[in-house]
Design goal:
This protein is of the alpha/beta class. The protein has helices at residues 44-52, 85-89, 104-113, 129-141, 159-176, 187-193, 218-222, 227-235, and strands spanning 4-15, 18-29, 33-37, 59-63, 70-73, 147-151, 179-183, 196-201, 205-211, 256-258. Bound molecules: adenosine-5'-diphosphate and magnesium ion (MG). Residues 44-45, 151 line the site of magnesium ion.
Length: 259
């Protein structure tokens, strides 16, 4: 087990009378990639906010030893239309919390790695959706995050661009020894980018979790031994009452199966 970046212990989040998350245990470890799957409203984005330290749980504990630096990527690129690609990518440096990571060589390197150098002086309205999302990825990476949190980052992109960026992300995270949590509805995406896969069910509880050997491309993702099981967990009807994960004693690793 790697060093812990964030640990959620028996957390719950309620918004008024609505329970968004209940009784969730989640470990995010240094150098590992985790995918969070589950139907809309199952609490995935809420968990990301907890991991980011932006939200306090209604119950349970969030442990963030070392207070990891966070980079965030959303479904929409959310670029500043009046800034160039380069300035958007460097934007995280403008925030006081990241002032110590002002790093022009890194910005140039990320522009290069993301194939954006030729567009460095362009404005967001001159970019394709895929290019804009590359800028958003670069902006998140430019603060040298310990943990990258991605909320359905590629779901608005066409399949070819999505596949390209999934491959890029996995390679980049692995090469740099970074950690990530990616929320996705795409099982293949989870099997391509993640070492740990967690499926939430409606009602905000964990249905199943696995540690996996990720697929190397879309062809092997399609025949991944875990694909059918993840699909089945995803499609499982919600019979939620905060019930334990099947076969588990609710232990954090009780239902971690290696495939
Ligand atoms: P997901 O990302 O899996 O779609 P969310 O974490 O966004 O789910 O939301 C989980 C539940 O909490 C949903 O029922 C949603 O309507 C509710 N919820 C999320 N954010 C808020 C909020 N700020 N105020 C009230 N309810 C919220
Ligand atoms: Mg969401």
């Amino acid at each position: 087990m790697g060093a812990l970046l964030v640990q959620l212990t028996d957390v719950a989040v309620t918004y008024g009378s609505r329970v968004a998350v209940r009784r969730v245990d989640l470990d995010v470890e240094h150098g590992r990639q985790l995918a969070l799957l589950g139907p809309s409203g199952a609490g995935k984005s809420t968990l990301l906010h907890l991991l980011a330290g932006e939200l306090h749980p209604s119950a349970g504990a969030v442990h963030r030893p070392g207070t990891p630096r966070i980079g965030m990527v959303f479904q929409q690129a959310r670029l500043m239309p009046w800034l160039t690609v380069r300035d958007n990518l460097a934007l995280g440096h403008a925030y006081a919390a990241n002032a110590d990571v002002r790093d022009a060589p890194l910005v140039d390197e990320l522009l290069d790695l993301l194939g954006l150098t030729a567009h460095a002086d362009a404005y967001p309205d001159q970019l394709s959706g895929g290019q804009a999302q590359r800028v958003a990825l670069g902006r998140a990476l430019a603060v040298r995050p310990d943990l990258l949190l991605l909320d359905e980052p590629f779901s608005a992109l066409d399949p070819a661009t999505r596949g390209e960026l999934q491959g890029w992300l996995r390679r980049h995270l692995t090469e740099r020894g970074l950690s990530s949590v990616v929320v996705t509805h795409d099982i293949d995406e989870a099997l391509l980018v993640a070492d740990d896969v967690v499926v939430l069910r409606a009602g905000g509880t964990v249905a199943r979790r696995w540690s996996i050997t990720p697929a190397t491309n879309h062809v092997t993702a399609a025949s991944h031994p875990l694909r059918a099981q993840v699909r089945a967990a995803y499609d499982e009807p919600a019979h939620d009452n905060g019930a334990p994960e099947p076969g588990s004693d609710r232990g954090r690793h009780g239902r971690r199966i290696h495939v």
